[in-house]
Specification:
Layout lengths: L3 H44 L4 H16 L30 H29 L1
Helix pairs in contact: 1-2
């Protein structure tokens, strides 16, 4: 009959083995993620969507995010949501939605305000 010490020793070795296995699996997954992120960054650089410095920062940021422990599904008020912002892509022949139309009007109003302020600044500099 095995003694209590043998059971504790086997449980300890089992825990160490499981931790080692989990570490190896996590390392493999991180290497896969890094490879995919690097490939995406390289494609974006090739298309001219970002420069090499931006690509390096992009890869570093993505790896930091991948290495952070995931929350249990709840986000605290201090942390931003993990879901990315949704972007709607319209074809050239599609009409903008009501929300987009109002946003376009707001942009036009803001643009006009900026132009007015620039004119006012120029006028004040001349005086």
């Amino acid at each position: 009959m095995p003694g209590f010490g043998d059971i504790v020793q086997k449980a300890f070795y089992l825990g160490v083995g499981l931790a080692s296995y989990a570490g190896e699996k996590a390392g493999g997954k991180l290497a896969q993620v890094r490879s995919q992120v690097q490939k995406l960054a390289d494609e974006m650089v090739a298309k001219g969507e970002m420069n090499t410095e931006e690509a390096r920062r992009f890869v570093d940021d993505m790896m930091k995010q991948a290495q952070q422990p995931q929350a249990s599904g709840e986000t605290s008020p201090e942390t931003p949501p993990s879901e990315p912002r949704r972007i709607e892509i319209l074809e050239e022949d599609e009409e903008p939605t009501v929300k987009q139309a109002s946003t376009d009007e707001n942009v036009d109003k803001l643009r006009q305000e900026v132009l007015d302020l620039q004119d006012e600044l120029k006028r004040l500099q001349r005086d």
